[in-house]
Amino acid sequence: MFLEDVEKCANEFRNLVEGRKVKLISHHDADGITSAAIIAKALLRCGVDFEMKIVKQLTSNLIQNLKVEDEVLMFTDLGSGQLDRLADIARKTDVVVLDHHEIVNFKETGNILHLNPRMYGMYFSASILTYVFSKFLDPKNVDCVDLAIVGAVGDEQDEKWEMKGFAREILEEGVRIGKISLQKGLRLYGRYSRPLHKALEYSFDPFIPSISGSESNAVQLLAELGIPIRTEEGWRRLKDLTEEEERKLATAIIVERLKLSLENAHDIFGEIYTIIERPERIRDAREFATLLNACGRLGFPDIGIRLCLGDYSVMTTAENLMEEYRRRIGEYLEMIREENCLRKGENAYFLMMKDRVPDTMIGTLTSIVTSSNILEEKKPIFGMVYTEENKIKISARVPPNIDLNLRDILCKVVEKIGGEAGGHERAAGALIDKSMEEDFVYIIDSKIGELLAKERKG
Ligand code: C5P
């Protein structure tokens, strides 16, 4: 059913774009950038003229100001949450939405060509959807399979470093055609990009007792194991280790975890997706996804798109952006630890960042805080920042042990205090008026309290 509908949609699309231009609008994260690049490549192949805009959010303002004449309007990695607002433009021109976010006001899709895996009880990234769609346009687009996987990884579909469901089938397709190599290895981020001792120091999941957070202990552990950390060419990275060395390191990590009787001490391995034929810096799908996120969120999505399309002349610029991204995240985490930005509600945490963090970075920051051990208690976290338009952008995340639908909660709250909301159950966002800051904190804290109490009773 799903594949048949995608094929039907691709055929309709082919007819629609005949002799016309496409205006493509996509999201600024790794999933949005890879989705846009996949469509761009497909359009180039079909000889269709297009322009592209990468945005941080599909706001009402943006929709209202869209100028279209005869172009086909196409949205990737956004749109399903704004179908009612897109319906107006769909009266003037053809609109195509390829998205995977929660669907709002489905009834009002009108003549919008809309595909979303949720309509089929499936869940996967927009990059996987656009990839399947593009393959129906032209089977040659199978060569974008690596981008499909990078987007899926950027969207954290490989929970605990294992790709599941439909995305796994696409991964296996990538392996079959020789574009991707799939191996099992140590679940340490930065196989290609970080000096090994740094990769160990920065590893919090898996947590390595006495090593996580300590560069000197990481260096000492490697010395004790007889694993050199430098060669004449510079710092060694995980990818430079021999199999024997990686095995030795894995055993040592397990031993450290057993010393603290950590649950699942052996749970330190995961899948590594290597993209054959990409330059070393973006050969690891996870590192590629992080780099794209950095480009997009710092306001340079074009650099990410160019990397996806194989223009590596921008690699140094992308690496500099990555450095800047890391530096800024470090700075923001420091603010949360040391300054007065953290509001501890009874039922939720609020990162009240005011104008100290750009609205493009609050989502990533809130995700990092949620998966780290910076805050003592496991509670939902709401990152809040002021935007240039005098609003507050909110990023909401919930830790794994709590069951809450954040999108529903935010949608209900904005009904009360005004604004826009959307996203997923466990990662959602909203935009509210600046004057509503305190009301928001109060309402959310009590609402979550009520919901959790109900759940405890039920
Ligand atoms: O920006 P952030 O990463 O926090 O967004 C989390 C999710 O919520 C994303 O899927 C985003 O598209 C969605 N969102 C939304 N409407 C907003 C803000 C975020 O649909 N106003």
Explain this structure to me?
The protein has 458 residues and is an alpha/beta fold. Helices cover 44% and strands 16% of the residues. The chain contains 16 helices and 15 strands. The chain has helices at residues 2-17, 30-46, 60-64, 83-90, 126-137, 145-154, 165-176, 196-201, 215-224, 243-259, 285-297, 301-308, 315-338, 362-371, 406-417, 437-457; strands at 22-27, 50-55, 72-76, 95-98, 113-115, 180-186, 230-231, 234-235, 269-275, 342-344, 349-354, 381-386, 391-397, 420-423, 427-433. Strand 11 (349-354), helix 14 (362-371) and strand 12 (381-386) form a beta-alpha-beta unit. Helix 5 (126-137) runs antiparallel to helix 6, helix 6 (145-154) runs antiparallel to helix 7 (165-176) and helix 15 crosses helix 16 (437-457). The longest helix has 24 residues, at 315-338. It starts with a helix and ends with a helix. Bound molecules: cytidine-5'-monophosphate.
Q: Reading side by side through the largest sheet, how are the strands ordered? A: 10-11-12-13-15-14
The 3D shape can be described as globular
- Major sheet attributes: 6 strands, mixed
Which percent bin holds the helix content?
A: 40-55%
Radius of gyration: 23 Å
Low-confidence stretches: none
Instruction: Compute the average pLDDT.
Output: 93
Name some characteristics of this structure.
alpha/beta, 458 residues, 16 helices, six-stranded mixed β-sheet, 44% helix, binds cytidine-5'-monophosphate
